[in-house]
Each structure stands twice: as C-alpha cells, then as structure tokens.
Amino acid sequence: MTYRDPLYDKNSPDSEETVDDLMTDRNLGRSPSGTQGTGGRDNMGKMQDKAQDAAAKASDKADELGAKAQEKGQEVGHKAQQAADQGMEKASEGLDSAADMLRQKGQQQGGEAGNMANTVANKLDSAGEYLRDKDSDQVISDLEDLVRRKPVESLLVAAGVGLLLSRIFR
Length: 170
Hints:
Layout: H1 15-27, H2 40-109, H3 111-133, H4 136-149, H5 151-168
Helix pairs in contact: 2-3, 4-5
C-alpha cells in the first residue's frame, strides 16, 4: 500500500476538492487553518466593539457607585449634623444646670464670692442661650473666627478647659 498525499497527488479522489477548497479559501482571504486574513479586520472590529461596550458598562457602574457614595456621604453628614445639634442641646442644658447650681452656692456664700458666682452663672446662662439659638455650623464658624482673632487667649482657654476636665474625670 502506498501513501498518497491528497494535496500533491492528482490521482487522489480527494485531491481535487482539497486543492479547490484551498484556492477558494485563499481567494476569500482565509488562511488554510480557517482563520480570516482580511476578514480578521472584522474580528478586530468586533473585539473593539466588545471593548467599548465593556468600557461603557464600567463607566456606568462607576457613575452608579459614585452616586451611591455621594448619597451615603450626604446621609452621614446629615447624621453628624443631627448629632452635633443634640450635643449642643445637651451642652446648653448642662450650662443651665451649672448656672443654677452656682447661683445657689453663691447665695449660700453671700458677699463677694456670691457676686462672682452670680456673674459666672449669668455668663453660663448666656452661653447656653447662644447654643440654643445657633446651629452647629454657625457655632463652628464663630469659634473659628474667635480663634483667628485671639489665638493666644483661645489657646489659654483650651488649656484651662483641658486641665479642668482632667481634674473632673480623674
């Protein structure tokens, strides 16, 4: 038995079909493996379309995530504003109760100590009233302005408050 190559042996029954098939494929721009030569541009275009679709989907997802992040940020900011307002309300109540306590102690002491206690109590009352009348943004803005105008005094007051708080919470 002899081996016949269908591509080169013209006597092979399959040879004419195979050569014709190869010639047809080459005329159409296909390589013998079945991939396309000029048709590869079509595949490249399809790949570019898929890449553009993927990029568009990624961009849409990024926009969606950005919108959700912004929404969550606004929600957190709103909750922080509420917490600050509640804290200011509690501080105002604390100042009022401290002022009342100082007044009572001042009345018991009488004299110069009583007058000083009454003066401090009045200042605490006005501070409590200020906190009730302003929202947290206004208070922060006013505090920043005060620190800019009087940095040394603000630092000394902060140190004093810190010392006082450390003594209280020992």
